[in-house]
Amino acid sequence: MISKPVPARSFYHTCNYIANKPGAEILIAEGVRSHDVKLMAEDFERQRQLHPSKELACFHGILSFYPGENPSDEIMTEIAGKYLQRLGITNTQYVVSKHTDKAHLHLHIVANMVNNDGEVISDSWIGLRGKKVAQALTKEYKLIPAIKKNLQLTHLEAMNELEAGKYKIYTAIAENLPHCQTLEELETRLQQQRIETLYKYKGQTQEKQGISFKIGEYSFKGSQVDRKFSLAGLRKSLALQEKEHLQEPRPVRQQQQVQQPEQKLSLTRRRRTVPKEEQKNDLSALTTELMKGAAGIIDDLLKPEDTHEQVPYEFTLEGYLRGQRKQNRRPKR
Question: Where is this region: Disordered (predicted)?
Answer without folding.
Answer: 244-282
